[in-house]
Amino acid sequence: MSGGALWTVVLVAAAGCYALKLAGLSVPAAWVEAPWVTRVVEFVPAALLAALVAVQAATAGPALVVDGRLAGLAVAALALALRAPFVVVLLMAGATGALAHVLAP
Amino acid sequence: MSARAATLRDAVGLGLAVGLYGVAFGAAADAAGLDVWQALALSALMFTGASQFALVGVLGAGGSGAAAVGSALLLGTRNTLYGVRLAPLLAPRGPLRRAAAAHWVIDETTAMAVAAPDRELGRLAFRATGATIYLGWNATTVLGALGASGLGGTAQAALDAVVPAAFLALLWPRLRRPHPEAALQRRVAAGGAVVALLLTPVVPPGVQVVAAVVAVALAGRPRPAGAAG
């Protein structure tokens, strides 16, 4: 993607996200507090973040791949289960990815 | 310690903690091919972390601009509901104050504002949390983006492993108690991941992420009474 196209994506998405924030402060509560809307919005982050975890850790283009990223993710999950702080989780995942790259480049 | 001082202390503490995520975001943006200015523009203008991570996540996976914008907006819908909850508390006078307040309507400011013991402290918590997070988040975004650029092969492999781990860390608190409905959140997350992986070989990059959310939303749609499942 060219620099200009990237800038368009950045600015359009930023404007859209700002409009969503402003809408909440501006529209009558009844418009957006339908039970079904609230329900979906409660669960969108889990679905979207999990999809991103899967895609970032186990795919390359259209292919499913297993490499150091998946090993790093497993170590990160273990660290999170042991209640490690955020920065420790990232450092351990990064170290695992680097180790896998050195062992199996 | 006075209630005001306690509110300010909590706001600053939260701002510092969130700043760590800014480093991860800056690095993820660099890994996705954004330059430092584009990463900073996202933090300064979009200023809602999960949407920013989603945008660079989709771009990093080779996704189209439309899929990237769509993912960011899907996560941004949360802030609309937060705004509805904050409107009576903040009660901004006039369109300018409302436009300014809207920019800081995010997870953390909402949580701090609605948890405050009274309305005045709620407003203070909103402003203090918004200001510290805004400054910290933008500063650390630049640090992360600059630090990640110009890495060699092994460091790049480390960064590639950090990005999905950062998403997992964002997701994790939703899957565990004391989050209400943690069990259902885990099922939703598993569903999202499985749908995304199954679609990866057959749809353009990035589309599987949006499709996973739509599939989960459809699975949870309202049904006629008696047909709930």
Automatic annotation (TrEMBL), chain A:
Alphabetically ordered keywords of this record: Membrane, Transmembrane, Transmembrane helix
InterPro entries (alphabetical): Brnchd-chn_aa_trnsp_AzlD
Chain ranges passing through the membrane: 43-66, 73-104
Name assigned to this protein: Branched-chain amino acid transport protein (AzlD)
Organism: Geodermatophilus pulveris
Lineage: Bacteria, Bacillati, Actinomycetota, Actinomycetes, Geodermatophilales
UniProtKB/TrEMBL annotation, chain B:
One Pfam match: AzlC
GO cellular component, one term: plasma membrane
Gene Ontology process terms (BP): L-valine transmembrane transport
The UniProt record lists the keyword Transmembrane: yes
Transmembrane spans: 12-33, 53-75, 124-148, 154-172, 193-219
Topology relative to the membrane: Multi-pass membrane protein
UniProt keyword Transport, yes or no: yes
Localization, UniProt: Cell membrane
Main location: membrane
InterPro entries referenced in this protein's UniProt entry, alphabetically: Brnchd-chn_aa_trnsp_permease (IPR011606)
Keywords attached to this entry: Cell membrane, Membrane, Transmembrane, Transmembrane helix, Transport
Family classification: Belongs to the AzlC family.
The protein's name: Predicted branched-chain amino acid permease (Azaleucine resistance)
Protein's organism: Geodermatophilus pulveris
